[in-house]
Amino acid sequence: MGPSQKPNVCRRLSRRALGFFSRDAGVVQRTNLGILRALVCQESTKFKNVWTTHSKSPIAYERGRIYFDNYRCCVSSVASEPRKLYEMPKCSKSEKIEDALLWECPVGEMLPNTSDYKSSLIALTAHNWLLRISATTGKVLEKIYLASYCKFRYLSWDTPQEVIAVKSAQNKGSALAQQAGIQQPVLLYLAVFHVLPFSLIGILEINKKIFGSVTDATLSHGILIVMYSSGLVRLYSFQAITEQFMQQKLDLGCACRWGGTTGTVGEAPFGIPCNIKITEGLLQRNSGLHKQHYLPFLHVSKNTPPLLFEVSSLENAFQIGGHPWHYIITPNKKKQKGVFHICALKDNSLAKNGVQEMECCSLESDWIYFHPDASGRIIHVGPNQVKPPALSGHSGCFSLLFSLPALETLSFEDIVLSMRVNAVNRFVVLKLSEVENNSAQHQISEDFVILANREKNKNENLPTVTASGRVVKKSFNLLDDDPEQETFKIVDYEDELDLLSVVAVTQIDAEGKAHLDFHCNEYGTLLKSIPLVESWDVTYSHEVYFDRDLVLHIEQKPSRVFSCYVYQMVCDPGEEEETTNRSCKKDCNNFKF
């Protein structure tokens, strides 16, 4: 059941011009986005492929900017043809940018410099420099030398737009040490900073002597997440660890004496010493912890270092989200793959209807996520439907989601805000609500279902003739993720327009055709479908971004060839505009990096 009346764009524009709206902050912005949503979804609106480009290096997209050549070159995606914003000087392989995050100005804070109020790119280079780069000019505004004792490789937000975590590559040890069976006690390092102005919180050492046979670790929302090959996942309070085990407080730009060496913190060659080390002696002296250090919804264990929560899950897949707090796991047995348990965090009790499993026959398993719109719902994507369950009382929702294979390549934002799936044709949104007459327990129920557009298999039950002339009817069913049937490849959420975007692909012979569908986030109603003109090869890696009035498709082909297709919104295009677009596409196909 959808809304009873469609919004009238002309009426909204008139009311905005006359000032007929509340004085509450954000009302004008919400009104503008409501107008844009109505324009995007109306029938006469088209999305045209205005330009295409190719590159030999990975292509990244952030907030209307397309980055080429390891973030060295930035191009605006807003213009109807490629417009270069800046290009940084060429550098050696050891100086290239390996990872980056876009930082945007905080609201309501006084900053030391006027340049700080503009967006910046926080970048990590191959030779361990952390840079703050102007997102409009490419000028380096700040630079910090991290360290020489390890190789830092990954950037992620601990707290979005406030605290960043810089993660090192895992310490495998030298080839000789590996042959001799000598294991390195330190697995990796995590450097944590407040951003703008940059201030150091500390560098934490993940030591196997303390944490055991850990296989990976990361930081998110003030929680240190440690994973083991057995499937065990443990959560620790990073704040409590910092307060108890920090050896020395360090300030960027200040002189420091460490290990008999004196230098300036954050400058080469001294860098930043590892100042948070959990030692056995410290563990013995600091076995007790104060409960106020912990997040209010997590259990406190007597184990040391301060353990908040632990759970065992297949492939370390574990999520926290919704309100009241729940978590999702897969039982730690291979035969349970595709089965999800939704449990209350306060007492580990299974929600009513909390075992979610899709009856399907496919090569790829189904996926489940807490909805990134903070509604408390859960999105379940399977081979033949998508459904969202939801949590009741959904105020102040946050979602924590990670899986061991994804940590090396994806940031927290990538994982939570974008649900990328393989060959499915069912999308279900579920909701979580209180059980009647039992407010302590919650139940899972179906909110809406989105199905792929499929025809019934015409070859099903076709008769065959044996060598003896006997006619036999052979019954068979195709896989639910059969590429010749329409399947969902990518499910994403556009938070500003409150739309679910779904990429559906049909593979015909050697060529695949894709279209991007916009669904109402509240009811699941299909509002608009946009065909993508380029062919879609299901064996390639694909990313699709829907950002207000822009659709961007990045494709990785064999031999590290990357292609970028830019679509822009056009209302009632005439013949003249069609001719202009074709001319622009022809010219822009030669735009390469």
Describe the structure.
There is one protein chain. By secondary structure, the chain is mainly β. It is built from 8 helices and 38 strands. The strands form 10 sheets. A 5-stranded antiparallel beta sheet has the order 23-22-21-20-26. Strand 14 and strand 15 form a beta hairpin. Helix 1 runs antiparallel to helix 2. The two termini are 48 Å apart. About 9% of the residues have low confidence.
What is this structure's SSE topology?
Blueprint: H1 9-18, H2 27-41, E1 45-55, E2 60-62, E3 65-68, E4 73-76, E5 83-87, E6 97-103, E7 120-125, E8 129-134, E9 140-145, E10 152-159, E11 163-168, H3 175-179, E12 186-194, E13 199-207, H4 208-211, E14 214-220, E15 223-228, E16 232-237, H5 238-245, E17 255-258, E18 261-264, H6 280-285, E19 307-312, E20 318-321, E21 326-329, E22 339-344, E23 350-357, E24 367-370, E25 378-387, E26 400-402, H7 412-417, E27 418-424, E28 426-435, E29 438-451, E30 463-465, E31 471-473, E32 487-494, E33 499-508, E34 511-520, E35 526-532, E36 541-547, E37 550-557, E38 561-571, H8 575-588
Antiparallel strand pairs: 1-38, 2-3, 3-4, 4-5, 6-7, 7-8, 8-9, 10-11, 11-12, 12-13, 14-15, 15-16, 16-19, 17-18, 20-21, 20-26, 21-22, 22-23, 24-25, 25-28, 27-32, 28-29, 30-31, 32-33, 33-34, 34-35, 36-37, 37-38
Helix pairs in contact: 1-2
